Amino acid sequence: MAQLICRNVAVGYGSKVVLHNIDFEVHAGNYICIAGENGSGKTTLMKTILGLQKPLKGEIHLGDGLHANEIGYLPQQTVLQKDFPASVLEIVLSGFQGTCGIRPFYTRKEKKRAQKALQEVGMDRFSRNCYRELSGGQQQRVLLARALCATKKMMVLDEPVSGLDPKASADMYRTIYRLNRQYGITILMISHDLDLTKRYATHILRVGVPSIHAVKTGGEL
């Protein structure tokens, strides 16, 4: 059963349609790269999938036991977010906010899982550091750990290597691939770097105006 199903979906903002005729399914363990030119609607599609805005047409369904608050999300950072005055551990723990409800504290289990997430991305020794004092690559790894705390099933990543140097980008892609293969976490990622993502992605969704189609690189879609 598919974790995510898009049927005849159109997305945009206001009354302006940027993409339509969107039909695809995502299954558990897929690693999917969404590729396209700037302004082609990639981020708008991703926000619609996440429920941050409504589709202008069509239907989006979650299945296979996946719920909306169980999707880990790594958005593009703003300048203000990069300068956020919180500790690394506090940033990572905030990944549980979608599931802890109005509870004003984090449990021992959540704190232990946050430390484990930091370990998974190679940032455990920085847990007490101030987030804004980290390099760009380190900050992205912290945000990946935050997304990992939010889910054991699916992560949605919007340009996770934006602004990183080639080495940091390659390291980030390898870490994401390991999480996908080792834990079976489904990856849905926007990326411009097809040369690198082709090494790891099971499918590439090429986004253009006015529709979307999938190119299979392995696995099933």
Number of distinct helices: 7
Biggest pleated sheet = 6 strands, mixed
Content-based structural category: alpha/beta
Give the strand order, joined by hyphens, for the main sheet: 5-6-7-3-8-9
Shape: globular
GO molecular function, one term: ATP hydrolysis activity
Keywords: ATP-binding, Nucleotide-binding, Transport
Pfam families: ABC_tran
Family: Belongs to the ABC transporter superfamily.
Task: Describe the fold and architecture.
There is one protein chain. This protein has helices spanning 42-49, 79-82, 88-93, 108-120, 136-150, 166-183, 194-197; strands spanning 4-13, 16-26, 31-36, 57-62, 71-74, 154-158, 186-190, 203-207, 212-216. The chain is α/β, with parallel strands linked by helices and 221 residues long. Belongs to the ABC transporter superfamily. Pfam families: ABC_tran. This is ABC transporter ATP-binding protein.
Chart the SSEs and their pairings.
Blueprint (H helix, E strand, L loop, with lengths): L3 E10 L2 E11 L4 E6 L5 H8 L7 E6 L8 E4 L4 H4 L5 H6 L14 H13 L15 H15 L3 E5 L7 H18 L2 E5 L3 H4 L5 E5 L4 E5 L5
Features:
about 220 residues; six-stranded mixed β-sheet; disordered C terminus; alpha/beta; about 25% strand; three-stranded antiparallel β-sheet
Write a concise synopsis of the structure shown.
The protein has helices at residues 42-49, 79-82, 88-93, 108-120, 136-150, 166-183, 194-197, and strands at 4-13, 16-26, 31-36, 57-62, 71-74, 154-158, 186-190, 203-207, 212-216. It is an alpha/beta fold.
